[in-house]
Fold this protein.
Amino acid sequence: MIDATYTQRDGAVDLRKLKLNLPSSQLEANGHLGAYPMVSPSALKVDFHTSNLSEFDTVLRDLD
């Protein structure tokens, strides 16, 4: 679930709530994401719990 608003005026995303539930992992986040320009500041609060990091093997490999 994602509840967010992008504002073109300042190129930012107001992330009210991001929630991801996987079989062995839960992630919740909220805050301010500076999307454009790329040097814009971001401030995110992330709460992440997992009992099986292998759920993220593909993503982590792609990120190198």
